[in-house]
Design goal:
This protein is of the alpha/beta class. It has three domains: 120 residues, Gyrase A, domain 2, CATH 3.30.1360; 128 residues, tRNA modification GTPase MnmE domain 2 (Four Helix Bundle (Hemerythrin (Met), subunit A), Up-down Bundle); 160 residues, P-loop containing nucleotide triphosphate hydrolases (Rossmann fold), CATH 3.40.50.300. Helix content is 45%, strand content 18%. The strands form two sheets. Strands 3-4-5-6-2-1-7 form a seven-stranded mixed β-sheet. A six-stranded mixed β-sheet has the order 9-10-8-11-12-13, sandwiched between helices. Helix 6 runs antiparallel to helix 7 and helix 7 runs antiparallel to helix 14. The longest helix has 25 residues. The radius of gyration is 29 Å and the shape is flat. Bound molecules: guanosine-5'-triphosphate (GTP) and magnesium ion.
């Protein structure tokens, strides 16, 4: 396929700051000629450059050598963008890479937009839109679980699932067309009897592929709120889990007023912890705001840890908190287990029978192991999820709702009237792979990328 773009883009592909190497990347028809104006290979027989061969030489401005470096040319179509791509591997200085980028721009390259290299890979048909998004997820992955999900998507996992669903949709549309074109051969009832169950089955399989909770966990980690009465040891537990003194801890009740957050990776999954202000009735307006925020954090959490001080008897406020968590994913923490115990699991279990009760002391790291295992289990998502990105799930849900509508229309009205719903479902699926996509959606997707990718 002939590349669709005509200009040559350039950007610094490595993260800003100082490092071992910094890479300036070019893509487009002028990549080779611009490279040869800013890079002089050292070897006498290096020219013409051999594709995909890293070559030693100098970055140059006219006759002046700016840096000793390496460069590589990857001729189309065997490149990331399917265009000619050139990379200059400089010493990793912020000024140095900026200087070489400026030289490339002087020689006719245009500064790349965020994600424009990947956008070109998409436009030139090397990857579909869901794979392009997987590149970004791979870069953003902070744990093994998110990396694996992104890699599955990059290798076409989501695309394969969507294309299979789209094939079934084409088959349904063909059935409707046949009923319209050959009414004497395929009767309305016969067509409806075929269309309705198949449309509903497809809608079900699309819905089953949408696990919004799993998608959220892969993208931002499992959201865990630590809550409880003042002074029970919430902030101490946060610090113990993070392995650093993130939140202030004092013996004074009401120490934490605002929310304090931190991430820890357990079992390959990111756990996003939020420490909250102690829940209690207060006239202090600042504390009141803190308590309101604590309640919001509890509401928004995927999992709540209700922290109790096991060296004190249960209070009415504790009882109220525990009963309010019915039906929510949660665990009860019997904290300060190094002190003489007043509370036992038997005291709290009747109040919240479905929640595990974990005894621990924030002062004794070894006692945190069962809680860490529990958190890792809660954050684990299936390796077989077909869809993992919110944008894909939203589109698949839309397709599913159009399919259900198609079934309802075929049942209540006529099969041919269902074809509009089937078309709308098809468009929603095509948005996922980018087969049918508007410019503004591409701007939104690639706008989230970093420059140089
Ligand atoms: N012995 C013992 N003391 C603890 C433990 N955890 C916390 N404490 C002490 O309990 C007091 C309160 O701890 P924090 O972690 O500040 O409690 P909190 O729940 O965050 O309190 P607020 O922010 O006021 O709501 C401090 O003096 C801690 O040192 C523990 O496991 N064992
Ligand atoms: Mg605190």
């Amino acid at each position: 396929m002939k590349p669709l773009t005509t200009d040559t883009i350039a950007a610094i592909a490595t993260a800003p700051g100082e490092g071992g190497v910094a890479i300036v990347r070019l893509s487009g028809p002028e990549a080779e000629s611009i490279l040869l104006q800013v890079f002089r290979p050292a070897g006498r027989n290096a020219l013409p450059l051999t594709s995909h061969l890293l070559t030693y030489g100098h970055a140059v401005s006219g006759a002046e050598s700016i840096d000793e470096c390496m460069a590589v040319l990857m001729r189309a179509p065997r490149s990331y963008t399917r265009e000619d791509v050139a990379e200059i591997h400089l010493h990793g200085g912020a000024y140095l890479s900026q200087r070489v980028l400026s030289l490339c721009l002087d020689k006719g390259a245009r500064l790349a937009e965020p994600g424009e290299f990947t956008r070109r890979a998409f436009l030139n048909g090397r990857i579909d839109l869901s794979q392009a998004e997987a590149v970004m997820s791979l870069i953003a992955a902070r744990g093994e679980q998110s990396r694996r999900a992104a890699m599955r998507q990059l290798q076409g996992g989501a695309s394969a699932f969507i294309r299979e669903a789209a094939d079934e949709l084409y088959a349904l549309q063909a059935g409707v067309a046949a009923c319209i074109d050959y009414p004497e051969e395929i009767g309305e009832d016969e067509a409806a009897a075929d269309l309705i169950p198949r449309a509903l089955r497809l809608a079900e399989s699309l819905d089953a592929a949408c696990d919004e909770r799993a998608g959220r966990i892969l993208q931002s980690g499992l959201q865990v709120a630590l809550c409880g009465q003042p002074n029970v040891g919430k902030s101490s537990l946060l610090n113990a889990l993070l392995g650093e003194e993130r939140a202030i801890v004092t013996p004074i009740p009401g120490t934490t007023r605002d929310m304090v957050t931190g991430d820890v990776t357990l079992g390959g999954s990111v756990i996003h912890l939020t420490d909250t202000a102690g829940l209690h009735h207060t006239d202090d307006p600042v504390e009141q705001i803190g308590v309101a925020r604590a309640r919001q954090a509890i509401e928004a959490a995927d999992l709540v840890l209700a922290v109790l001080d096991a060296s004190h008897p249960l209070t009415d406020d504790d009882r109220e908190l525990l009963t309010s968590l019915h039906g929510r994913p949660c665990a009860v923490i019997l904290g300060k287990a190094d002190l003489p115990a007043v509370l036992t699991p038997a005291d709290v279990q009747p109040l919240l029978p479905e929640a595990p009760v974990l005894k621990l002391s924030a002062n004794t790291p070894a006692t945190l192991a069962p809680l860490k295992t529990f958190l890792a289990e809660q954050a684990a998502v299936s390796d077989r999820l077909a869809l993992t990105q919110p944008r894909h799930m939203a589109a698949a849900r839309r397709a599913s709702s159009h399919l259900r509508q198609a079934a309802a229309t075929a049942r209540a009205l006529t099969v041919d009237m269902a074809s509009l719903d089937l078309q709308a479902a098809q468009l929603a699926l095509a948005e996922i792979t980018g087969d049918e996509v508007e410019e503004h959606l591409l701007d939104r997707v690639f706008g989230m990328f970093c420059v140089g990718k």
